[in-house]
Every structure is written in structure tokens, then in C-alpha cells.
Amino acid sequence: MAADLTLAGIVVSLSIILSGLLIGLGKTIGSKRVEHFGEEELVQSAINAALVGAYAAIISIASEVSKGIAEGQTCVVGDALENLQCIFSNISSDTFQLLTQAISLHQIVSYYQAIVLHFATVSYQPMSYLSSIQSILGGQILTLQALLTLAQLQVQVLGFFAPQLLTFFLPLGLIFRSFFSTRKLGGFLIALSIGIYLFYPAFILIFPAPQLNVTVANLTNMTNNSLYAIPIIDINGNDKIAEKFDNMTTGDFTGDLTLATQQISASIASLSMFVLLAPLFSLLITVIFIKEVTDIFGGEFFFAVSSI
Q1: How many Cα atoms are found within 13 Å in the side-chain-facing hemisphere of 301?
Q2: Selection from 11, 51, 265, 270 nearest residue 141 by Cα
Q3: Which residues fall within 8 angstroms of residue 155, CB to CB, at 6 or more apart?
Q4: What is this structure's pTM?
Q5: Per-residue pLDDT tens digits for 168-214
Q6: CB 293 within 8 A of CB 191
Q7: Among 17, 39, 62, 80, fewest CB within 10 Å belongs to which?
Q8: Is 220 helix (H, G, I), strand (E, B) or coil?
Q9: What is the pLDDT of residues 123-147, one digit of tens each?
Q10: DSSP H or E segment with residue 123
């Protein structure tokens, strides 16, 4: 970081010298265009010098604001990006547990749905009605897997940007902003650093984080219920299978399955809001902010200078 700031200071000094030369050259050859260009660069150089000089203060203020954003959402001691990364990591862990229990439940349903009892003159599939629940659980499992992938993607992206924004992208933006040809790129990098560091986590953290513990506990109790457990029996033994079905009537297997699918659906809705909708909403606002700030830091002030 120190090397970046040193380089930024050198570039600003050179741009000030170049601005003076351009102003002098414009007056010498009588070219108002060159003179105004030099004045424009002088103003830009002064702004760059102020930004470089205030770099430490900018970092300190941004860090305090970010920590303030994270109040009430404390997952780890740190700024908003670190807390958001921690929250998504916990969500990934909880989603994986929910996915594991949903797969176990799907396995149980598939087992009982496929059983066919063969008698002398007729064959009977007593739980064929479970095919619809099997399909529902299959769709829920695929959705949970997709949401788990999105949550892990957030963890990876935040893990990359969190340590880089204020120590790499922001100083690099200050350097690029000092050159006329790369001023818009420099303004973009400055806006990107501020936008992702402050705005992106702020507008995600306003959404409620999903709570999956109750659903996971209920599914665990169901999959571990001895009445519903997949029996290790001879699948050709109709009497033993019929006895198992008779024991299952002690519990409300269908009712428990209906409740389980409803709870999984509610968890998926909660996950979708925080893992999918919240980042999209925040990204939209962050992109608008980056665009507007890029226009400010990457724009020219020629008309204001020419009116002096």
C-alpha cells in the first residue's frame, strides 16, 4: 500500500508540472485550447493531490462507516463486508444441512413409493401416491443445491474483494485518475472501491437472514424416526413389508411428509430472498452509484475552468 501511495504522489507531482508546462505553452503560442487544457489538468491534479493526501482519512472514515453498517448484524468483529461474508458462510453451512436432510427424506419416500406387494392373483402398490411428494422433494433438492452454490459464490466473491478494495483498487484508481487518458478508469476504480465496500453490504444486510435451524431439526427428527426408517428386510417378504406398513400407521407418515415439504418450501423462500433477491437488489443500487460517481471522478471540469 505504501508503494502505491508513493507512486500516486509521484504521478500527481508530475501531472502538476505537466499542467504548468501546458499553461505556459498555451500562453506562448497563443492557443487558448492548450491553455484551457493545462488549466483543466491543473484542477484535476489538485483534486488528485487532495485525494492522495486524504487517503488515510478516507480509509479510516470508510472503515468506521462500514462497521456502523454492520451493527446489529454482528457475525464477526470487523467491517460490513467481513460480517456479510461470515453470514453467507453460516447460511451455506445451514443450507448444506437442510439439503442433507432433504436428500435423506427423498430416499425414504422413494423407497416406500416403489414397493409393490405381490399376491396370488393381484399386485398392489400401497404407497404409489407418494410419487407426487417424491417429485416435490426432487425439485426442492435441486433448488437447495442452486441456492447453496449462490451462497458459496458470495463467500468466494466477498473473500476476494474484502481485503483488496481499500488497499489495491482505491490506490490504483488514484493513480489512473492522474492521467488524462485513463481518468475515467481511475474514477471507475474509485467508485468501485467505495460502492462494493459500503453500498453492496449495506443493502443486503437490511434483509432478514434466513433461519433454518428449526426446519433442519424437524427433518432430522423425521428421518431418524424408527417408524419411518428404511427397514433392512427381505423385500420379497410380503408379510414383513405389510407388517412394516402396519407399524407406520402409528405415526402420521403422510401428514409429516406434507409438513416437511411445507417447511422446506418456506426455507427455500427465505433463502431465495437473502441469497438471490437481496444481492440483485443491492447490486442494482451499487451499479447506479458506481456509474454516477464514475462520471464525477472521471469527468472533466473544462467549462468551470474556462470561466475563471
Answers
A1: 15
A2: 265
A3: 85, 88, 89, 92
A4: 0.78
A5: 888 888 888 877 778 888 889 989 998 999 899 989 988 988 999 99
A6: yes
A7: 17
A8: helix
A9: 666 677 788 888 999 999 999 999 9
A10: strand 123-124
